[in-house]
allantoate deiminase
Amino acid sequence: MAIAIAYANTDSMADFLIKDHHHHHHYSSLSYFFSYLLFLLLFSSPPTAYAFTGDVAEDSKNRRDDLFVEILKDEAVGRLNELGKVSDAARYLERTFLSPASIKARFLLKKWMEDSGLRTWVDCMGNLHGRAEGRNASAEALLIGSHLDTVVDAGKFDGALGIISAISALKVFYMNGKLEELKRPIEVIAFSDEEGVRFQSTFLGSAAIAGILPVSSLEISDKSGMSIKDVITESGVEITEENLLQLKYDRKSVWGYVEVHIEQGPVLEWTGFPLGVVRGIAGQSRLKVTVRGSQGHAGTVPMPLRQDPMAASAELIVQLEKLCKQPESYLSFDGHCSDFTLKSLSTSLVCTVGEISSWPSASNVIPGQVTFTVDLRTIDDVGREAVIYEFSNQVHKICSSRSVLCNIERKHDANAVISDSELSSQLKSAASTALKKMVGDIQEEVPILMSGAGHDAMAMSHLTKVGMLFVRCRGGISHSPAEHVLDDDVWAAGLAVLEFLENHL
């Protein structure tokens, strides 16, 4: 096996990574080439390449055993492929909150957890837990997790890789008789919802455990009119206000939370490293903008007399794009944003309108109402609030000039999360040790990255300190069937988790 490792200044690349790759879909070959070329041009000095060889297949059996190829690579890849076939749709991967496929996937993961010697249970929000008590069941527990739900037409690694990597690493301990030697309990959690596809409310599973899920969330309905409470009850689990509140973990019982996840961006691939440590996660807000006008006949209402919410929405969306492309042009004059915030926004702010709907939605009718969503992310929370405030001003200004009524609802807010320095240091050391075992000596440090995509670690940060490890994915493509992780990178992720857990023996 030969792995080429290229290195670039990861500090200078951090700002680039903040861009949102969480909603990254198919690229054409040509568009990806130009995106990649643009990325290379952003950095003045090209990376220096180092080639290492360390063909494990030709090494001794002891070396193969030391790297646990059969469990961390072969079995883990097989399980990811098997899980990737568990879908509610026939032609693509889709698993939403407590759907039939999600329950089937949970059953598979439960079986694999028990195969690793873990005690399992499902809580009232549908989260699956697998726990090893170690030497001291009352000690603070290390939680490791990710999500089992997917977006529509998903890839098979998003969420699943983090769960499988943890289960595989713990299986190695179980097979070696070391599971009972752990100095603290280790608990793997497969969260029931992170993507927020079904109920448009992210982190349902992890937010409940972190104690930040409002009881009122149980009344949120999906497009079919079923509430979260209805769906949970239908799955055979009783959910009440009391047992939802009881789901929150006691801070004193938790040592920390770690999550392994695909990068969903191109930086690790560019540097040549299979693994990277996450420095922090961008904060995000989701807005719903409703524009109400005067519904009318498309052929009989003269243009000067129209109060068209569709045309107004179009202007609002273009104005949002201008604001997010050049925030300094709109925010610098008010004196409320520091130079640091303006610089952070200029490198990290991304805004997306991903959904538009109109009523009555007919080609020969001037709509009476238009709604659209806004997804806004940046690493600077103060700047995010300033952008929302300025966008609100622009909305009311434009709507007033067009004589339409506008309303903005904040549907979701999550502050930026900075990873715990101790956990990050341990993960960096574990990743470095894993890569050295796989390919020999490496001369450069494991990259440290920022994440523009949201993860369960954001919710869990309200409960305990968090740390994240990113795994390279081909082309930086995610939320797409083209999402791909090399078998050897799956192996590297599992080995890094194993090395990290060695510190807890």
In short: The chain has two domains: 60-282+417-503, 283-414. The first strand starts at residue 2 and ends at 7.
